[in-house]
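User: For documentation purposes, I need each entry recorded in a consistent format: the amino acid sequence on its own, followed directly by the corresponding structure tokens. There are two entries in this batch. Please keep commentary to a minimum and don't merge the entries.

Assistant: Recorded as requested. Entry 1:
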Amino acid sequence: MTPEAMRALVDDYLAAYNRMDVEAMLRTLHPDIAFTNISAGQANATASGLAAFRALAEQSLPLFAQRHQAVLGFEAGAGRAVAAIAFRAVLARDLPNGLRAGQVLSLAGRSEFEFRDGAISRITDIS
């Protein structure tokens, strides 16, 4: 897969994420997708396979009134890509950790992508 094709696929995935369109997100993913979210050095969410990814994605939808990931930098090659990401979201409801509805979250991080058979096969989000 060319770096340009990887970038296009990542852009499609992130556009669907930003629209909160789970079906469109799934169309960019390999059936054996592996997803991990790492925050402060700890994995706090994982999914293996499309069904588990769908469940995790749908579970997170009600948390956000708005959410947006913007690519600040992108490097690709040898079946992998890394995107520097700026994440901004507005919470839709209070969370058990003390965050409140209406609160704005702004995080910087990176997303690492791997590709197989013309689809995204692994996503690791790190913040």
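Entry 2:
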Amino acid sequence: MYKVFVRNWWKVNQEWPNGLEPDSNARKTTIGHADSEDEAREMAQNYNATHKQGRLSRKAEFTLEEQ
């Protein structure tokens, strides 16, 4: 099973160029689950197509959940 989630790619930090620092530890918010990689990819693409990323580049992704 795949977990589909959203997170911000950047965080505000005025000491970094453009005031943004990469944020690999950003909080992930689950938006759904999928039985196949194709279904998970479609869910993420649909989310990204219908939601603005904003300055912090909030995007949907997916990962295979370990059982």
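Summary note for entry 2:
The mean pLDDT is 96.
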